[in-house]
Design brief:
The chain has 728 residues and is α/β, with parallel strands linked by helices. Helices cover 48% and strands 11% of the residues. Helix 5 links the parallel strand 3 (89-92) and strand 4.
């Protein structure tokens, strides 16, 4: 009991808190007792305190291995704010000059420093290893430990060298901390750090205050996001994009539409990047548009929404990024825009990587796809992925639970799947199982002679999507398991075997449909989100209604009721005809009271340059000419195209998009110098001839014709040459 009182007193003394959160106290005691410790705690759970407080209470200096320079600076500044001396916490990384490093070393050897943050790259330097051998190390903390695992969403190879270097410096207890780790990643971390006997502290991954929604990504995605953000006036939000170029472009679109936003990505110079991050933290801007480079360790409690413009590469990444919303326990909306071709694009980016890495990447994408398309409670799917069971049938705070789909009986389908997995002796992935049921004679099925199995072709009454749904929901129910270490082989669980002995009702909900060709998506944001009501206009109209009610001596609601005003503040009617389309407003009422309201709305729309839903066209950034000029000049100078892409932070396919726009708009360029370097002359001629004889320049048709011999990139490059020479 005395230890508890002592710890609580020290917590109050150093950090000003009266009580510990969750597992913090148990973790800290374990560290103080000198035992290896593994901490799995969701974003916002207070991981940093788990090593900060013990470092202050123990003799010597704790070494904290952390992946980001910006994160180190934030943590060091935070620790110094709790102490009388700046020497209490330091970092060593590439941003310090020799004088600064000498000062850090002096403070450490003088016993002033309780916490030293180092990047794994700095830890491997021989002179740092030599210096740390002379330091009284209290323990090691490995922050963002998921970076160790190639199954994690942020793999850093240098993290896998941490254990050998600790052995070189001095053996001391290790505390590893992460906010996201599947059972596989957790095992990987413990094994690599040589801490299989560590005490494991695992907090629940459930964040009840976060609302999860997946929306159809359409051609109007910019418009959808702009409209959503305008409905969240004054609230902090993050928009994640996959590429640096998209970050820059979309931040510009938001600014052009009167939204206070800044970009953030690793390709920006560090001063601008840090300045933009600080502007967001200090609430000088509401929105940060960022790649995944943004956010690790960002402790902003009142982020009210996280939007994913593109589907993330993994559910770990998605969970950690959404975890930046609502860290104070308040509202947090997590909306991702999904279209299957984005996943196909991500899969293409993996080409050229080692096969094992491609396999891992494909599996992570498959899990993301399953999450996006499922109609099951999103909370249940996410928690199942992290090895946690969620027993509630309806969480009440995700799109699927707020708009539940009808369940259908799938007992016979489940029996068929479980029997097939059993016959295959748990040695094949779900796509192989489904191909057997659908009677597809793939090369793999022929090679294993699985076309002779009794089950072959017995599932043709259902489509691939339905069989996928059965398998995914059987996994959540615990009848099937996926052997992650063996590339996702399906395995029958003991519960699955019992089910086959004694089957019972098994109901599924069909997956959500995402129409690839659907270019309009007008569904309002659900889950307590506002329907994009303009609060300023609503307030002005209420004042006008009050003024009219006094003048006409009638109650305000007689003029227009609140729901009618809300609808006006959403759709901005500026004529009497448009006003009559508002719920609760008939022709008589519109003529009697409407003129002053539509006049007011029209002025508000003009003064604030508002794009109305009727004719909403997100103002795009007109000045693309700078990038165009740069590309044309670089090509004139015969700069390699991949070098141009790297310089501008573009994916190669994005650069090709830009070059295609240039040649299709009538500008003549020559990329022969690059083509001759990367392709054989006869190959260029063959593709060129195809376009010369073809009736269309469409890529789909070209790939159908040439795709077995040439890559999509090669076809696009020759098409650029063809258009430039023949059409310009």
């Amino acid at each position: 009991m005395a230890k508890k009182d002592f710890l609580t007193e020290e917590l109050k003394k150093h950090f000003g808190f009266d009580t510990f959160k969750g597992n913090q106290e148990a973790v800290i005691r374990n560290v103080l007792d000198g035992r290896d410790t593994f901490v799995l705690m969701p974003t916002g759970g207070g991981k940093s305190l788990c090593y900060q407080l013990p470092s202050l209470l123990m003799q010597g200096t704790a070494i904290v291995i952390s992946p980001l320079i910006a994160l180190m600076k934030n943590q060091v500044d935070a620790m110094r704010s709790f102490s009388e001396s700046n020497g209490v916490a330091h970092f060593i990384n590439s941003s310090l000059n020799k004088t600064a490093i000498d000062q850090v070393k002096e403070d450490i050897l003088g016993g002033k420093t309780k916490l030293l943050y180092v990047a794994p790259e700095s830890l491997t330097k021989e002179d740092n290893i030599e210096f740390l051998r002379h330091v009284n190390v209290s323990f090691y903390a490995v922050d963002e430990a998921h970076c160790i695992s190639e199954w994690g969403h942020d793999f850093r190879p240098e993290y896998r060298r941490i254990r050998p270097i600790i052995n070189e410096i001095v053996q001391r207890p290790v505390i590893a901390l992460t906010a996201t780790a599947t059972p596989k990643v957790q095992h990987d971390i413990q094994k690599n750090l040589g801490m299989m006997d560590a005490t494991v502290f695992k907090s629940s991954f459930n964040r009840p205050n976060l609302y999860y929604e997946v929306k159809q990504k359409t051609n109007d995605v910019d418009k959808d996001i702009v409209r959503f953000i305008k409905g969240q006036h004054g609230k902090s939000g993050i928009v994640y994009c996959l590429s640096r170029k998209k970050v820059e472009d979309f931040a510009e679109i938001l600014k052009t539409n009167g939204i206070n936003a800044l970009p953030y990505h690793a390709g920006m110079d560090s001063q601008t990047r840090t300045g933009n991050q600080d502007a967001f933290l200090m609430e000088k801007v509401d929105i940060i548009v960022a790649t995944i480079a943004f956010g690790m360790g960002i402790d902003k409690p009142d982020v009210r929404y996280v939007i994913h413009y593109d589907i993330p590469k993994s559910l770990e990444g998605y969970y950690q990024e959404t975890g930046r919303a609502g860290r104070d326990g308040g509202e947090g909306k997590c909306i991702v825009f999904y279209v299957n071709k984005d996943l196909q694009k991500l899969e293409k980016f993996m080409q050229g990587k080692p096969i094992s890495e491609q396999e891992i990447g494909k599996q992570l994408l498959e899990e993301t796809k399953a999450y996006a398309e499922t109609s099951v409670c999103r909370r249940k799917v996410l928690l199942h992925y992290f090895g946690e069971e969620y027993t509630e049938e309806n969480c009440g705070n995700c799109d699927n639970c707020l708009n539940p789909k009808k369940q259908v009986e799938a007992k016979e389908l489940l029996i068929t799947v479980l029997e097939t997995v059993s016959i295959l002796k748990d040695k094949f992935k779900s796509d192989h199982v489904i191909n057997i049921l659908l009677g597809k004679e793939t090369s793999e099925i022929i090679s294993y002679e699985h076309q002779d199995l009794e089950m072959f072709g017995t599932g043709t009454d259902e489509d691939e999507k339905t069989w996928n749904t059965v398998i995914r929901q059987a996994m959540i129910a615990g009848y099937l398991d996926k052997d992650i270490e063996n590339y996702g082989l399906l395995k029958l669980t003991p519960a699955g075997r019992k089910y086959l002995e004694k089957p019972s009702s098994f109901k599924i909900t069909k997956d959500n449909e995402f129409d690839e060709d659907d270019a309009t998506d007008e569904t309002p944001v659900r889950g307590g989100a506002s329907c994009a009501v303009d609060p300023v206009l609503y307030s002005i109209m209420k004042d006008l209604r009050k003024k009219l009610s006094k003048k006409l001596d009638v109650p305000p609601y007689v003029i227009f009721q609140d729901p009618s005003l809300e609808a006006m503040a959403t759709t901005y009617p500026i004529t009497i005809e448009e006003l009559q389309n508002i719920p609760g407003v008939g022709a008589g009422k519109a003529k009697r009271y409407g003129q002053e309201f539509v006049g007011l709305i029209k002025r508000h729309v003009i003064e604030n340059e508002i794009e109305r839903p009727e004719d909403l066209r997100v103002r795009t950034v007109a000045n693309k000419s700078k990038l165009k000029v740069f590309i044309v000049q670089s090509i004139d100078r015969k700069v390699a195209l991949d070098d141009i892409a790297t310089t501008k932070g573009l994916e190669f396919s994005e650069l090709l998009d830009e070059i295609e726009a240039i040649v299709y708009s009538g500008t003549k360029i020559s990329i022969d110098y690059f083509l001759m370097d990367v392709m054989d002359e006869e190959h260029i001629e063959e593709i060129y001839l195809y376009f010369k004889e073809s009736e269309t320049d469409g890529m789909k048709e070209a790939i159908d014709e040439l795709g077995n011999t040439y890559t999509e990139e090669e076809i696009r490059l020759v098409r650029i040459k063809f258009i430039s020479e023949m059409a310009n």
